[in-house]
Amino acid sequence: MKGFPGVVGLELNAKVKGNRKCELNCQAMGYRFYVRQAEKVIDGTPCDQNGTAICVSGQCKVSAPELG
Questions:
Q1: Which of 28, 58, 59, 60 has the fewest CB neighbours in a 10 Å radius?
Q2: Is 5 domain-assigned?
Q3: How confident is the model over 7-60, as pLDDT tens digits?
Q4: 46 found inside a domain
Q5: DSSP characters for the chain?
Q6: Is residue 44 part of a domain?
């Protein structure tokens, strides 16, 4: 898990699966429930563990490989 500098008790934790990967869901430390803070995150937010997919308009999409 990755913490956010300057924010106490907030960690990035990729436990949400399925079609909810691009929602902004928060879980308080020490509790077992989530609260949806927003229907979708900012476009370009990673939505998988290996970084090959990003959120676009609330949907998790596999990003195209860079050509170069």
A1: 28
A2: no
A3: 455 455 556 666 788 998 888 888 888 888 899 999 999 988 887 899 999 999
A4: yes
A5: -EE-TT-TT-EE-----GGGTTSEEE--TT-S--EEEESS--TT-B-STTS-EEEETTEEEEPPPPP-
A6: yes
